[in-house]
Amino acid sequence: MASTPRIYRRTDAGTRAWESADANVPVEHRRILGLLDTDAHADVIRGFLRRYSDKLIFDWLDRLVQLGLVEFTSAEAQHDLDFTSSLKLSELVAEDKKRLAQDAQIAGAVIASKGAYLSAERLKYAPSPTRAPAETLLLIVEDDPDQAALAELRVAAAGYKVALVATAEEMAKALKQAVPDLLLLDVMLPDGDGFDILGNLRRHPDYALMPIVMLTVKATTGDIEHGLALGADGYVTKPYSKDVLAETIGRVLKRE
Known about the structure:
This protein is an alpha/beta fold. Helix content is 46%, strand content 17%. The chain has two domains: 6-74, no CATH class; 99-252, Response regulator (Rossmann fold, 3-Layer(aba) Sandwich), CATH 3.40.50. The longest helix has 21 residues, at 94-114.
């Protein structure tokens, strides 16, 4: 693993290799090149490639650097959160598009029957909890007062600490105070789109690996595919039952 913080960027040669979909560049190398349409901290790249070990990811990055497709700087980067601006999602290579479409179809069927879906791939490689439930913080972002009160009640009843905010601006302030063990994020907020917020978080080194589950009524296949592409760990659709929410939280935090 890299010994000092690194900020990676795609070179002009790397852009040409990615745009041409050069078959000589392995798919996961192209996946990394696709993510690097803007400067990215190594943790952000790891957040999108959880299925692989850190060593393998950094081996790939080193190889791309050797080939002149990627360059990096070593720095302690400072980041500001801006959830009001729309984030452009990097175009995914054809293999990822196909996989995401298949995942979205499966997720839609699971949501229709169970009311919730979690990405098995992301769960498998998520870190195990190190704190007891009473010390585990869940941040709920929900602007509807009734929905917010219900979610807070059900999360607290499951034994977790709860922080509740109603806007993207309030969430940004809460995140600066403490990074939660799980973020439950509404999609339709008065000052931002939950998908834009999700994408912004996944590009930020402090939140790239933070578990995020979308709480939403928007559960079409297109919505699900968009959320998975941006890095959502799962979906819970409204209205949801006490058991569904508690079970989803337990699975994300590996307590069930």
